[in-house]
Design brief:
This protein has 18 helices and 22 strands. By secondary structure, the chain is an alpha+beta fold. Strand 5 and strand 6 form a beta hairpin. Helix 8 packs across helix 12. The chain is elongated and about 120 Å long.
Length: about 600
């Protein structure tokens, strides 16, 4: 039997400044001291379970709950476990020799046993010393599981001096007692302790008790076999993560053990146009310990619109387990998650296209974002990313190309895809396109200006134009063009008349042959300027054109009866009034007529009835 003798000594470290370093630099957030100590207690509990399963501990396991107790009067926080415990020699080895990780040694010792690393959290051996960020003195009262082991008490006041001696403890396990320093008394609050425990320990694999209540779910859904779960289980867990959110559309259960370990559940929420608000909803865990919700390195940018949990012991963390470090595994995991998401979407599309189409208005923003930002995702998504037309019909890219190739291929052999981003404002232009039996797509989300550019880069001989970017016959130019009923002189006269109405130098007037049933005057904006402005607005940038009005074209319909009537009117005042009426009608169709100008137009129109 090992005898414990009273002794004093110095901690085995190479600098006496280790504690200031720990307190000020190693851990950026002081609250994680509780995460580290509770994680250590969980480790100790997991180890005794594993030793029992190996037949190396034959005693009763009993209840392995970790308990956190707050004593405001004594100004202490105590973390207790009934885990593996420590002998005096082990304290000297694991506590006095700073940065010697007991978890790492345990894993190495039992590495040949199946699943030996599963559930062991600590790797750096520095977690215990995070206690000195908030404590002026720390005590450990511990007893090893080993036969005939004696209880041991260790104490250190944050200097390099420690005391080690016998203690009174009848059961295996450890109590870590923190005597809170005056500058850290914010942690002597039930609310604060509960807040920290729920943040970092909500899903720890051993029950954590505080104020006589268990605060965690030790077997969260991602630790279970997908075959044993129902839809209700996934929905219930989503509510646990996001109590006030709408139900998700569907989810993906991640479960891989080679070439890295990764588990988790990712949910597809109903996305809103303001997708910046959707971010930071994926939580990163390492063996069920919360690490961060900033997952930009491990999860591709577009997948950060998803919600849920990722858990991996193979994600490289810095020594304080507070953020990711650059590593090859991160890139592999990133690629794996992208592939799994794409495969899930492809599977839903293949097996239930009708259901997929019903969900697409909600997930389309996410899928489009993926096609823009990730070439590998695009390669898969091109077969299930859908286009929706103004009649509510959905097409894949290939289906749409086939559907419109006969009617919407221009004289140069290029397919012209027409779209609207505001069907109400652009209604007259949509109707003009329909008269030609042209199809018009809805591309009206905040990300569509970028999505359109991606499609034009990826698809051969496809040009995408907003339906009001030009007159209908110029949007899709054919071999045979309409002829003007006006003579050259009449066209020049009409052009001059309308140029006289223009107050803006950004306007260009042209007279062209259009069908007689089109508007007498059509106002259009160049596609490239519209798209550039929309893209800059999406990214929150100011327009490159500043406060200058956008260039636009005023197209006078040479074949409209009103144009001929205007030219035939002898009274110059009446002629200008008719031209102004036609021009204002064009402004109205573009949503450019408002305020006093709109009132005057209405009054003038009514007076002619």
């Amino acid at each position: 039997m090992e005898s414990v003798v009273q002794e004093k000594g110095t901690l085995s470290i190479h600098t006496e400044n280790i504690f200031p370093i720990i307190k000020k630099f190693l851990y950026s957030d002081h609250e994680i001291f509780l995460r580290e100590l509770v994680s250590n207690a969980v480790d100790a509990s997991q180890k005794i379970k594993q030793l029992s399963s190996y037949g190396e501990y034959n005693g009763e396991l009993g209840e392995l709950k970790v308990t956190v107790k707050l004593d405001k009067e004594a100004k202490t926080i105590t973390v207790s476990d009934r885990g593996i415990g420590m002998t005096a020699d082990e304290i000297k080895k694991y506590i006095n020799q700073i940065a010697f990780s007991g978890a790492a040694e345990f894993v190495e010792q039992y590495k040949d046993k199946a699943g030996s690393e599963k559930g062991i959290i600590g790797h750096f051996g520095l977690g215990f010393y995070s206690a000195y960020m908030v404590a002026e003195k720390v005590e450990i009262i511990t007893r090893s599981y080993k036969d005939d082991a004696e209880a041991v008490r260790w104490e250190c006041d944050g200097s390099t001096e420690f005391e080690l001696g016998p203690a009174e403890r009848s059961d295996r396990g450890s109590d870590v007692v923190l005597h809170i320093a005056p500058d850290s008394e914010e942690f002597l609050s039930e609310f604060r302790i509960r807040e920290i425990l729920e943040k970092y320990g909500k899903f720890l694999p051993i029950e954590i008790e505080f104020e006589d209540k268990v605060i965690n779910n030790p077997t969260p859904i991602w630790t279970k076999n997908p075959a044993d779960l129902q839809d209700e289980d996934y929905l219930a867990f989503y509510k646990e993560l996001h109590p006030y959110s709408e139900d998700p559309l569907f989810w993906i259960h991640l479960n891989v053990d080679y070439p890295f370990n990764l588990t988790g559940v990712l949910y597809f929420p109903k996305l809103k146009n303001d997708f910046q608000m959707q971010r930071e909803k994926i939580q990163l865990y390492s063996r069920q310990v919360f690490i961060t919700d900033e997952v930009k390195d491990i999860v591709p940018d577009f997948l950060q619109l998803l919600h849920g949990v990722i858990d991996s012991p193979d994600i490289p963390l810095n020594v304080s387990r507070s953020y990711l470090q650059a590593d090859g595994n991160v890139k592999k995991i990133n690629g794996y998650i992208t592939r799994k998401v794409a495969d899930k979407l492809a599977d839903i599309f293949k097996n239930d296209r009708e259901g997929f189409e019903k969900k697409f208005d909600d997930i389309g923003l996410f899928v489009k974002y993926g096609t823009i930002s990730d070439d590998k995702f695009y390669d898969k998504a091109k077969d299930f990313c859908l286009l929706k037309n103004t009649e509510g019909k959905y097409f894949t890219f290939a289906e749409y190309q086939e559907a419109i190739k006969e009617n919407q291929t221009d004289k140069n052999g290029t397919q012209i895809w027409l779209y609207t981003n505001d069907s109400k404002k652009q209604d007259s232009f949509i109707n003009s396109a329909r008269k030609r039996s042209y199809d018009v797509l809805y591309l009206d989300t905040v990300i569509d200006p970028h999505f359109i550019n991606t499609l034009e880069q990826k698809l051969e001989k496809v040009n995408i134009k907003r339906v009001d970017a030009d007159t209908v016959d110029k949007l899709i130019e054919k071999e045979f063009a309409l002829e003007s009923v006006l003579s050259t002189d009449q066209q020049e006269k009409a052009k001059g008349l309308f140029e006289g109405l223009m107050e803006s130098k950004s306007a260009t007037v042209q007279v062209e042959a259009m069908p007689a049933d089109e508007l007498p005057v059509v106002i259009t904006f160049p596609e490239f300027m519209r798209r550039m402005t929309d893209m800059q607005a999406t990214s929150g940038q100011r327009s490159m054109f500043g406060d200058m009005p956008m260039m636009y074209t005023v197209s006078v319909n040479a074949n409209h009866p009103l144009t001929a009537k205007i030219l035939e009117t002898a009274d110059e005042t009446q002629q200008k009034a008719l031209a102004k009426q036609a021009y204002d009608l064009a402004l109205l169709s573009q949503g450019m007529l408002s305020g006093q100008a709109l009132t005057t137009f209405i009054q003038r129109t009514v007076s002619t009835l």
